[in-house]
Amino acid sequence: MSEPRPVPTEQEFRAAVIEDIRPWGKFRSYPSARAAAVKIITVNPGAALSLQFHHRRSEFWVVLDEGLEMTIGDRTWRTAEGEEIYIPREAPHRLRCVGPSRARVMEIWLGDGDEADIVRLRDDYGRGEPGR
User: Among candidates 28, 22, 27, 56, which has minimal Cα distance to 131?
Assistant: First the structure.
C-alpha cells in the first residue's frame, strides 16, 4: 500500500504554480505531482453543489466562467473569471451558479481522496450519502 499523498498548504501549492509569458499570451502550469484528480465542474443556472467538506484533501479551484457564487466557511462572494481559490481540508464550501448560463471551475484535488470523501452538510437534491 502506498503512503498517503501529503496535503500541501496554500502557500506551498501557490509557490509551485508557474506562469510563463509567451508572444501569443501566457500559460499557468499547476503542480500535478500532489494532485489526486483534476476535474472541470459545470454548474447549471440556478443550481448548486452541496455544502460539503473533505477529510482527506484540500482543493484548488480556478474559475473558468463568470456567474458563480462561492462559499467557504462564513464567507460568500461572487467569483471573477480567472480567480484562483484554495479550499483547506475540512473547510465547508459550496459553489452556486447565479448567472444566466452554465459556468465552470477547474478543480484540483490536493492530497488523497475520492468521491466518497464528501461530507454533505446541506444538499438541494436530498443526497446525504458520500459521493452521490
Answer: 56
